[in-house]
Amino acid sequence: MTTPKPHESVQGAAGFALGGFLANVDARRAAIEVRAFDTSEDARQAIDQDELPSGSVFVVDSENVVGFMVAIFPAALTEERGPFPHLPGPGRDYMDGDYMDSVVVAEREARARGFLLRDEDLQDRIRSMRKLFHASHDRVITAPDADDPEWQMALHRMTVASAYLSTHDPVHADGVQAAARRIAADLARIDQQYGTARP
Question: Of the residues 40, 60, 134, 192, which has the maximum number of CB atoms within 10 A of its CB?
């Protein structure tokens, strides 16, 4: 009895086809242009001059705005939208999913920055912020360098995520409070041991 090759069995053929499909999706999303702008006015000027093709993603870090181009019109996906309108419904459903790849790339850009997405519910936001917090924390504790812009951005993103989670995630809030109690107890012990008075 010979063993069939992966593409000779039904399951193997399905797996092979799925792998090709996923590679195609990844390639399409990697090809989407992402442009960062200093202000929404800069983004608006680029849009008015037809510099952003349909489906491309725009980011305005200073205003917490991420969106994408629907034909020649901009649409913001983040809660903060600047001068750009929101879509009438969820981005992934817009135009029967015709802009799904652009929406996924825009969501990825927003989450990486800790920006809140308009279409996310509270639990999705908490999961996104937890992921951002842990990824940023890992970067902050690995080779700390206060002069490195990448390290500074990781620290900023970790702070943004922690502030959001402290307000909206009871598990994170409890962890922050427990850490604050440990620090206070350590400082009290040091004061007692060395006689240093703290205000």
Answer: 60
Q: Are 105 and 29 in contact (CB under 8 A)?
A: yes
Token pair in block for residue 192: 């007692």
Both tokens assigned to 191? 């004061």
Task: Give 50's contacts (C-beta < 8 A, 6+ positions apart).
Answer: 72
Give the C-alpha separation, 99 to 94, whole Å.
7
Crossing angle of helices 122-141/149-168, nearest 10°?
140
Strands 57-60 and 34-37: parallel
Write the pLDDT tens digit of every residue in 9-51: 666 555 555 566 556 778 888 999 999 999 999 999 999 999 9
The Cα 162–Cα 177 span in angstroms is 12
Place of tokens 């442009």: 35
Using CA atoms, how far apart are residues 134 and 161, in angstroms rounded to an integer?
9
Q: pTM for the whole thing?
A: 0.64
Contacts of 167 (CB under 8 A, 6+ apart): 173
